[in-house]
From TrEMBL:
Similarity comment: family membership: Belongs to the SusD family.
SUPFAM superfamilies, per the entry: TPR-like (SSF48452)
Keywords, in A-Z order: Cell outer membrane, Membrane, Signal
Residue ranges annotated for the RagB/SusD domain, each copy included: 341-415
Record-given protein name: RagB/SusD family nutrient uptake outer membrane protein
Localisation: Cell outer membrane
Length: 452
């Protein structure tokens, strides 16, 4: 039902109620005012609006690809090469971001658009049918918290760098903007404030969402993102426990063959949450930039030998790379132009639980060795002995398993590792606040290294 009604109210909301142009400040000055008693007057309309939030989140500038492949370019240290003609991703790869970078700007504006749609849903819960109200609230909170988490990681300093209570994060806008009169020049909240809001939203979402929910957010999806949040804070017990809740729910299972976890048009048993893409709807910009033209992409990101050398002989993950018609190495993860864009999958939860247990000296759910070997077994490589499983081994396994899925930069930052000569919290590894946003809102302070 939700798929059928998706085009009704979201277009109204995005077109006239929450849309904001490139020359507007982040607080979303809409093109026109639409009365909420018209746009959000029935339970069906609110559900349609909720699907609009998912659609906005799946934009290519957000979770449809750019928020994954571009941070990976920023984190690269000689394992890939950008060969495309677009200047914006090249700036990422070279670690020379400019305040006018349009990709940086669109990630910001499109994320806040989706957040505002979610806020509109949350403001209209009183008209939602009681039997679905918890789910609707949980899904809207999930969308909002996931996007705030991605924003604060990209535009703010790492949580563990300095004092998160004083470091600038991103503005928290928690009420919907429905008219021009409501616009205001908002300021950036602290990193700590954003993380607190994200944790609160995800915790409530997990308590409200069902275990199964089609392709929409579930309690497991909320717990999985929570595990990432806690890792960023180096709260290993919290990350361990959240990952364990996902694993022990028995709602997910590793697919038998590594290759079968990717380039699929439907969710696999391993997918905890994925952006849905089809020939009629959705964008897969991971395909656009990782896949060669014979698979519908541009082939702008070459995989170099330095990355391939990380894998053991016989590793199925190594075999998943291939040579295109130009003899350039490509990853097989994104070869389907209409394949879903995976956001989080079960293999990551095993590695998170392993890391959390190792750091805490515990065996919640299972031992670190068994969890790491569950991932390695599926990849077709030999088990590690307990004496071989330490923090470095777990992080190395994570790098191989999640390669080119958008997690590298965030893992580097939370573990205080460097990117070449750049420290984990170097200004070059933080997005600038878009200049066009600052031009109309002087309350938005700029990040270090980008001028004031």
């Amino acid at each position: 039902m939700r798929k059928l009604i998706k085009q009704v109210i979201p277009l109204l909301l995005v077109g006239g109620l929450v849309m904001f142009g490139c020359d507007k400040q982040l607080d979303i000055t809409p093109a026109q005012s639409i009365s909420s008693d018209i746009a959000l007057s029935t339970s069906e309309n609110v559900e349609a609006t909720l699907v609009g939030a998912y659609d906005a989140m799946s934009n290519g500038s957000v979770l449809g690809g750019n928020m994954f492949y571009e941070p990976d370019l920023l984190a690269d240290d000689g394992e890939v090469r950008w060969t495309g003609t677009f200047e914006e991703p090249e700036q990422m790869w070279l670690k020379r971001l400019q305040v006018e970078n349009i990709d940086v700007e669109l990630a910001w504006t499109q994320s806040y658009e989706a957040i505002n749609i979610a806020n509109n849903v949350l403001s209209a819960l009183d008209v939602v049918d009681s039997d679905i109200r918890d789910r609707v609230e949980g899904e809207a909170l999930f969308v909002r918290s996931l996007l705030y988490f991605e924003l604060v990681k990209l535009y703010g300093q790492p949580y563990i760098s300095g004092d998160p209570a004083s470091n600038d994060g991103v503005p928290l806008v928690l009420e919907p903007t429905r008219s021009i009169d409501e616009s205001a020049e908002v300021s950036r909240n602290s990193v700590a404030e954003v993380y607190t809001q994200v944790i609160n939203d995800l915790t409530r979402a997990e308590s409200l969402l069902p275990a199964t929910n089609g392709t929409f957010a579930t309690s497991g999806a909320a717990a999985a993102i929570l595990s990432r949040v806690y890792l960023q804070q180096q709260d290993y017990a919290g990350a361990r426990d959240a990952a364990n809740r996902v694993i022990s729910s028995n709602q997910y299972s590793l697919v038998t063959n590594y290759a079968d976890a990717f380039a699929t048009t439907t969710n696999t048993s391993e997918d905890i949450f994925a952006i849905q893409v089809s020939s009629q709807d959705g964008v897969n910009d991971m395909n656009t930039f990782y896949a060669p033209d014979e698979f519908g992409g541009r082939g702008d990101i070459d995989i170099l030998q330095a990355h391939l050398d990380l894998y053991e002989a016989g590793d199925d993950r190594l075999a998943f790379f291939f040579q295109d018609e130009s003899d350039v190495t490509r990853t097989g993860k994104w070869i389907n132009i209409f394949g879903n864009v995976g956001v989080v999958r079960l293999a990551e939860m095993y590695l998170t639980r392993a890391e959390g247990n190792f750091e805490e000296g515990t065996t919640v759910g299972d031992t670190p060795t068994n969890d790491v070997n569950a991932v390695r077994d599926r990849a077709g490589v030999d088990d590690l002995l307990p004496t071989e499983v330490d923090k470095d081994a777990i992080l190395f396994e994570r790098k191989l398993e999640l390669a080119f899925e958008g997690q590298l930069l965030h893992d580097i930052k939370r573990t205080e590792r460097s990117v070449g000569a750049l420290a984990f919290d170097a200004p070059e590894l933080v997005y600038p606040i878009p200049q066009r946003e600052r031009d109309v809102n002087p309350n938005l302070t700029q990040n270090q290294g980008y001028g004031q």
